[in-house]
Amino acid sequence: MLFRILILSLLIFNISFAQESLKLAVLSYGDTVKEYKRYSVLSKYLSSKLNKKVDMVIVENVDRVFELFKRKEAHLAVGCSVVYFELKRKFNVEAVAVMKINGKAVENGVLVVKKDSPIKSIEDVKGKKITLGSPICMSNCVMPLYMLAQAGITQEDVINIWSSGTDKGAILAVLAGIADVAGIREESLKTYQDQLRVIAESPSFPRHIIMVSKTLDKKLYEEIEKALFSIDQETLKNMEIDGFEKPNPNMFQVIKNYRKILDLFPVLK
Question: What pLDDT, on the 0 to 100 scale, is given for residue 106?
């Protein structure tokens, strides 16, 4: 009997302990140093406001994010619109806020070529080699594919199309001549503006979405939301962001059919 009571006590302790901590999964855009600084500040802030430890983990593979939610090890996430839609569809996750950075809560995807490339427009991409910065994310995968689809270009119209894993990898593939065109985030272009040229820019869509599992206690869910929208200026400064905006359904309108876009390029699956 004493042994059974001890086992039961340990189980109760473990469950209580698990409920006392939360995990924030951050899908990396490739700048892990900056991301660690930004989101460690956020996790520390949330810990103080919620009176719960909020651990932060930076994940480079989107499948790892899905795995963390499937195993119920993650409760919050930061990622792009596609990650949000997939987490919402599979794991009952909701977008509670969108980060505002440099005055913008949205971003754009771009198709780029080398400065001296003979490719002048998106129509010239036919018969060329294309690489993407990500295998799934909005800015450097779905929106570049969206632009190709809008121009009537499908997988059959190009020599090859693949993911380089990161924007930097895609850019270097173009600069090295391995690829003719790269699909990347507009922000990733800054360091290489003297070497690359934009041939197409996508419509705007939300970036850096803060998502929270709706399986959490309702009060805790509301406390997280309240904490984000009452964040102090010092914390925002340390995170190097302007603040948070409430997600607007219209923000997601342009990419609500993203799965159909991905279906046009099955080689990427």
Answer: 87
Q: Crossing angle, helix 62-70 and helix 81-91, to 10 degrees? A: 20
**Residue 128 three-state SS:** coil
State phi, psi for 125 to the nearest 5 degrees: -75, -20
Number of helices (H) and strands (E), helices first, in the chain? 9, 13
Paired residues of 95 in beta bridges: 211
Q: What values do phi and psi take at 215, rounded to 5?
A: -80, -10
**Tokens linked to 64:** 């790892």
Phi-psi region at 161: left, alpha or beta (left = phi > 0; alpha = psi -120 to 50) = beta
Q: What strand order describes the sheet that includes 243-245?
A: 53-59, 21-27, 76-79, 209-213, 93-100, 243-245
Beta strand segments in the chain, E: 21-27, 53-59, 76-79, 93-100, 106-107, 109-114, 129-132, 160-163, 181-185, 196-201, 205-206, 209-213, 243-245
Instruction: Quote the pTM value.
Output: 0.78
d(CA 75, CA 116): 47
The DSSP line for 212-259 is EETTS-HHHHHHHHHHHHT--HHHHHHHT--EEE---GGGGGGGTTHH
pLDDT at 75 over 90: yes
Backbone angles phi, psi at 78, to 5 degrees: -125, 125
Pair 196, 189: CB distance under 8 Å: yes
Query: What gap in Å lies between CA 1 and CA 52, rounded to an integer?
Result: 34
Has residue 228 got a pLDDT over 90? Answer: yes
Classify each residue of 235-248 as buried b or exposed e, where b means 16 or more C-beta atoms within 10 Å of its C-beta. bbebbebebbbebe
